[in-house]
Specification:
By secondary structure, this protein is mainly β. It has one domain: Porin. It has five helices and ten strands. It has an eight-stranded antiparallel barrel with strand order 1-2-3-4-5-8-9-10. It has a two-stranded antiparallel sheet with strand order 6-7.
Length: 304
Amino acid sequence: MRTAKFITFCTFFMLLVPLKAQKKLFHGKPIEFGVTIGTSNYLGDLSKSVAVQESNPMGGLICRFNLSDWVTLRGNALFGQISGDDKNYADNDAFRKQRNLNFKSNIVEFGGTVEWNFKGFGETQISNPHSPYLFGGIAVFKFNPKTLFKYMPTDPNGMALHGAGLQKYDNQWVELQPLGTEGQETTKYNERRRYPLTQVSIPVGVGYKRQFNGVWAWGVELGVRKTFTDYLDDVSLDYVDNQIVGGNSGALAAALKDRGPELGYPNFDNGLSRGKSANKDWYMFLNFTITRKIVGGKTVCFQF
């Protein structure tokens, strides 16, 4: 909610700058400020490909400095959400049906990128008013995978499943990283450390932007983020025995590391693969941008 209010305030501010100021502002390469909205998604252990049904809204703020017609420097502050669910593939994948995992995670990203404008971008309607571009850079992002827990005293076969102490978590989104669902920091698997929730990503992508008057520009882009973690979805290595996980992090951790029993399946054996650690996770944004020139050249203040 605070992010939405801030974006709204910035948009109104740009609209309120009088057109009279424009002639004084834009003597050189301008600085542009704007907003972006779109959708976010991810690729990881709970997806076989980009699942359209797991698309979620994203938005944020962007600031551009056109170093030349060919090169643009940009900073981003972006917010989105990613999610995944084995149920999306349960009809034709027996392993995913039994694994039965799901997650969602907010993504907050602060990054800097360089855009290379194929045709040159002249920031006016007269000279090179539009251009496709490639971009690449570096970002810092924060994530925190959670899963929806459903309390079930018995499984579909009538066998005892969840103890009464877990009823208080019914229908709650539970943070997974503190639970160590793959045995992180247990006595037997002490070399497995809990993954940090703040990490670095490499944004790369392609876009198109167009000047539609002397002040405003719009654009659309698709960007993917290469990460260096396999835990955006809390799934990477293998199954660890209930006694090990539960003894370290409690009954809730044991219940959430293997969700097959909720469908009447037995627990996976200790050591069986839970994910594919060799393949790191990705997240991505498909978004629309709108920017306004706010200052340029040597002029550094508005004249009202």
